[in-house]
Amino acid sequence: MKIMVNKGEFKDLIQREWIIANGIGGFAASTVTGANTRKYHGLLVAALTPPARRFLVLSKVDESIEFNGCKYPLYTNICDNYISDGYKRIESFEKKYVPTYTYKIDDISIQKTISMQYGRNTVVILYNIKNGNYDSKLTLAPIINYRDFHQVNKDTEFNLKEKISGTKVRIVVKNESQTPFYMKCSEGTYIEHHNDIFYRMFYMEEEKRGFDPIENHAIPGRYEIELKPNEEKNISFVFSLEENIDEIKAEDVIKQEEVRLKKIVTDTGLINENTEDKELIEDFIITTDSFIAYRPSFGLHTIIAGYPWFLDWGRDSLIAFEGLLLKTKRFDIAKEVLLTFIRDIKYGLVPNGYSGYDNRPLYNSADASLLLFEEIKKYINYTNDYKFIKDNFYICLKKIIEAYITGIDVDDNNIYMERDGLIHSGTINTQNTWMDVKIGDFAVTPRNGKAVEINSLWYNALKIMEELAKKFETKKVAEMYAELAEKTQKSFNRKFYNSDKKSLYDVLGDDRIRPNQLFSLSLSYQVLNPAGKNAKEILKTVTNELYTRHGLRTLNRKDKQYIATYEGDSYRRDISYHQGITWPWLFGLYNDAYKNVIANTKEGKVKGELQKQYDLFVKNLRVTAKTMMYKEGCILSIAELYDSKPPYLPKGAFSQAWSVAEIFRIILDSKTEEEEGKWEY
């Protein structure tokens, strides 16, 4: 994707972000202008305990070119009292495998390519320079820090310790107990600075989010490279936590990353001359790779839920599992990810995540354990690998079912099966569904009791266990799961349907219209009859009340608690998070529910009309996906959530795994031509 940059576009371009990842939780990210607008932006955010303990170590590199008595900055910085204008010299920005800037200054052309070394906390920058008619000097000034990526640094003295050997520099920011880092330029002269501080870098996005937007950085020194008239050369800059920096060649790193990503695309077998929207599908495949990370302490791969601030979350990872790994035929990694989920299973609970500081498992979820059944079922559908499931998972799955029946009272999860076969979970002060925001002890969307998706997942899990028991055990064991599933289904259908609103209760006793009811129709085993009248009414209600081009609203617009925009400080954002804001991943539920209803509808006229409406949904989604990927927010990715009213701005994490995975999966499965159309049910 190439973006041509013209003067006067700063306000638009500053909103366009990019990110690349290194496969162990680290990343590089910034804006198309090169200005950092978040505390999370940086050319090297290193995972010190992969994929956790992410620290900003290299904020950016400020480049300038000097010739004919004038010095021209190529960098753009936003401070609280000025904006440098390097963006005016950007001719183009391109992001495919790695980000590439092209600068034009008089008769000088400079191409800058940035890449991370896969599996290492290393970033490289390659400058291809075609000099003009004058002697020129290129200056590179690294701007560094050493702090947790959630914080900002107010230090005015960094006490750097530098060990210089030619253009190779070893740096410790404060004391020798910290992780040292290394930098090197392929040529030129390194000039050490002494307590040179970049004062008051301003993060406009953090100000919007109610956080401290001002930070100080250190400038340890600068590289100066002389250029002769009409000379063309490549100059490389390497910044790394690896001591063997002399062995790291920027050209090799960039080439290896391109080859690696091209191979991932090829290995999927999804691209050929007849592939519809070939470029879009290819870009989606490349994007899926950024969320896959290796956790050395486990010896297994995991899924990063989103950038810039999330780690691996059980719920998010499982929902993204099919789109990221099964659709792309990365079955070996899929096996590792599944093994990651059960590695720390406890109390019958799959960890919903791990601490970003000490890798401690967190058990605050009633749905992650049940989602595991669905993704195991999907894994079997793709691979037919029953042996892997039997050897590694079947006993764990049985224990989960037993725990949900007998009760789990850890961390206030309060999960247990009642006499009607339905699952109760949570307390008034706990949030253990995906709508999990708490402000202190205040649960913003209290969903304790019998939640619709928990019980849909519970029925689905019982039916999958029935299927597996037939394969692995006796008919008698399978019948036990079948009987409990039948009891659950009867209770569900008797208690959850709300005839007044033609929808399902979100939680028994709560008649708010939310998208969670789609779980009843979207799973492998649907607790609600997809051929029935109620199913069609629910689809209609969800479409009319919750549908937007960018995803589904989390609450219908007529509700007095509905909020359309995600903005302001932490409190205001938390209040709105699940109270009307649009989430793209919910399209996955919507898509699967629609397909199941169509597949089970017998009446030809009704079936045809449903198919027509579904086809229109997919056509519109293809158009929206291109907007999301190419025209707004993070280039070649999709945000966590969107405002629910025009202009439907991307918000939250700017690159989210389940957003990418679910929309990719829908588009990949569809065979329609791109068309616009008005949505009508």
Q: Care to describe what's here?
A:
Helix 3 packs across helix 4 (278-289), helix 5 packs parallel to helix 7 (368-383) and helix 6 packs antiparallel against helix 7 (368-383). The protein has a nine-stranded antiparallel beta sheet with strand order 1-7-8-9-10-19-14-13-12. Strands 2, 3, 4, 5, 6, 11, 15 and 18 form an eight-stranded antiparallel beta sheet that branches. The protein starts with a strand and ends in a 12-residue tail after the last helix. It has 17 helices and 36 strands. The chain folds into two domains: 2-159 and 185-256, Beta-galactosidase, Chain A, domain 5 (Distorted Sandwich), CATH 2.70.98; 269-669, Alpha/alpha barrel (Glycosyltransferase). Residues 672-681 have low confidence and may be disordered. It is 33% helix and 25% strand. It is elongated, with a radius of gyration of 26 Å. The protein is α+β, with helices and mostly antiparallel strands and 681 residues long.
